[in-house]
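Proteins fold reproducibly. Next comes an illustrative record:
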Amino acid sequence: MGELLVDILKSPERTRVSFELLPPLKGDTIESLYKNLDPLMEFDPPYINVTYHREEVVYRNVSDHLMERKTIWKRPGTVAISAAIKYKYRVMVIPHMICGGFTREETENALIDLNFLGIHNILALRGDPEISTRVFIPEPGGHAHAVDLVRQIMNMNRGVYLDEELKNATPTRFSVGVAGYPEKHPEAPNRQSDMQYLKEKIDAGAEFIITQMFFDNRKYFRFVDECREAGIQVPIIPGLKPVATKKHLSYLPRAFGVDLPGDLVKAVEKCRSNEQVKQVGVEWAVQQCRELKEHGVPVIHFFTMGRSDNIRKIVQAVF
């Protein structure tokens, strides 16, 4: 088990598969997460991703004319879950770190916890805006952009912490990855500007890229070519999410800013049940994986969204 993912990616012997997990909902147990992960561990993933979710604001009636604003965390526990997975399965874990909902001090403390736990790989993300605002607003004293989060982590790698009075602080050794968008980030004006933002994150110290989901491999290959032309030479891991329900036809484009190919949409629309949709999604992803594997990608990354049965079928068919 290598300490840093980038060391594995530099000289891959073969294409491997990795999985992204959601922390359990508050009140659930970690056993629900293990139940989904257990069937996937036979495929020897080089790492497991664990997402981080910001707080949500909800409004609840307290009387006929009064509503109470409450902040809740629906999926807490990313740091603890990452440690639990690392030591239960003896696998590298890459937790998300996000800007949204966190001050720089809170971010630093979380990174210190991860460093103490021997978790040295991070996926640095801006994170989603609050559902109620639809516009990303940084926490007072927090970061507005993922590149600022990358810079904070790189400062810690140099022994530079927020407390300027600290002397001879021990440097951390985090390897940082960032997100890439083959079809551009939904908020970017165009692909060219989105590539510029990505280059800034790499120049700040990020060492690998995991892409947003895509359903047309040509968009991934185009994205890789554009990255190389822009001077981005780090490994680029393709991210996949199989379609599993008819609702995904509208939800995935709306939530993630991706296009669904016409042939895939037609095949899903012909399905009479979500079980049939799931099979269509599996077959589509199998074809994607086979082509990506033929092109020698180092890892194929699956967004599991809390389920593993369809992912397992895909990996069994390809690997």
